[in-house]
Amino acid sequence: xxxxxxKKSAPYLLFTGMCMGAADIVPGVSGGTMAFLLGxxxxxxxxxxxVDMEFATRLLQxxxxxxxQKVPWAFILPIGIGIVLSAVSLSKLLSYxxxxxxxxxxxxxxxxxxxxxxxxxxxxxxxxGEFVALAVGTLFAYWLVGLVPATVxxxxxxxxxxxxxxxxxxxxxxxxxxxxxxxxxxxxxxxxTLDNMIDxxxxxxxxxxxxxxxxxxxxxxxxxxIGLMLFSRVLSWLLKHFHGATVATLIGFMVGSxxxxxxxxxxxxxxTDRHGDLKPIRWENTFPADFNSDVAIAIALCVAGFxxxxxxxxxxxxxxxxxxxxxxxxxxx
Length: 333
Description:
The protein is mostly helical. It has 14 helices and 2 strands. Helix 1 runs antiparallel to helix 2 and helix 11 packs across helix 12 (about 205-240).
């Protein structure tokens, strides 16, 4: 969880990218959280920053070798491949789980996020000002995830703007890019587009695949690229000059996001989507009415998520505050 300067192996980066991709599909869970807890967050921001005007200038001047040498491909490629693999391979599974096993899926992610918060907070040196930053981040995320999703058209310009906002949220721990798309009324459209593209490839329907790419993937992808270039620089500057307050705010984002990830909800208002299915737009958190097998499974998955993240974190530097109680750091002899 504490970021280090040592070089991560390609398999580890691939695994991290897959975790980021899986998290970003689920509304309420952030790929930035995965990067944060797996110890590559600062490296990720630095890698994104390497694609700058100098890089673009070299490309325009046909200095391809020089341009490519500027970018840490050994870091970016396995991360990117992992994200794409997760998005392609898990989109249908996670869509199914969100539809039919939502409480169990959210329970797993709830445990994962709580474990991340505990590990980060225990390592951080807190001051009065940073507690204020924590509170601000918590309240902002708590408010944001409670917003009612909008109903807006899927025009290229709107998709471009949604891409800018979603990618900015996606690299923030605790604020989900998928949830931003949900608030902006684009999440279902994007997931449906991804599923349709997979079906078009299987059926060799290349013209229909190209139509999906041009109408949805290209505008939202361009927005993501521009948003990532701009916001990563802002966030990197904040971490460099106001590291403590920034980390405290990011932890607050994670705490506030638990409002959305809490698995048990009472639906207050729903709308009918274009497929004729009811989709909740207003809800409030509640507790299960009965303790049954489904609740037991949800609790077990929550514990599993908590333990998995805590152990993974402890393996990095033997400093996880929970796992360290039973697996202490060995003393040098």
